[in-house]
Please model this.
Amino acid sequence: MSVNKEIKRITTHVLQAMKAKGERIAMLTAYDFSMARILDEAGIDILLVGDSASNVMAGHETTLPITLDQMIYHASSVIRGVKRALVVVDLPFGSYQGNSKKALESTIQIMKESGAHAIKLEGGSEVKESITRILSAGVPVMGHLGLTPQSIYKFGTYTVRAKQEEEAKKLIEDAMLLQELGCFAIVLEKIPAALTKQVSEMLTIPTIGIGAGMHADGQVLVTHDMLGITKDFQPRFLRTYLDLFEGIKGATANYITDVKSRDFPNETEQY
Ligand code: KIV
Model:
């Protein structure tokens, strides 16, 4: 299906209508102005300023170290590159867990200082109060269930979540709760495809899958993975559309050769 560029701005209501019509939602991460501009022009529906910036932009092993100020820096850069997509920003680790007042303060700081359109946070019933408080301030909230990378030290591994009945049951209850609270969408990360199907059919709000199979209402990938920049990360769920690592490396090698051989700059490339 081609991208519907007739839609001037993607809003949470547009996403709801897309689910109702059975139109898939395409989401990618973005952390800077230039990339956001390209992805937006291509027609992406949602840009997520993910805390995966901690991994792909800053080189950390986990998403835990990134700060609220760093997320705001990335988010405001993305916002300047976007005309059509809905821009969602991750609340970083430590900015909302266990304290709904702090969750609201962090959200307000993101919204005021970056100009973003919505926030995302990880977890179900544990973050119920934070979600309620943020929504009461009029800020749209996207949930995130399944593998929640901010809890990596609790899980111990990045393997598929909710394979056991008990965990699957909790995920279903949490998904229902997030919808009842008023979340506009839920990211489902690394869970079995059959569970994604069950949850997506049960909910009226869209599910956005990553490693969660073909039945989600939308898909999200980390842009750097999808473009083949992060060379060492190749899980089964990832489809790469470019090999930018090798592309950039090759172009850089050519540049170095041209500089060293005095081929660049030539007579037409000078004043
Ligand atoms: O931070 C991120 O990039 C995410 C996606 C993996 C959904 O949360």
The chain has two domains: 3-240, 244-271. The two ends are 48 Å apart (CA to CA). Residues 88 and 118 are 5 Å apart (CA to CA).
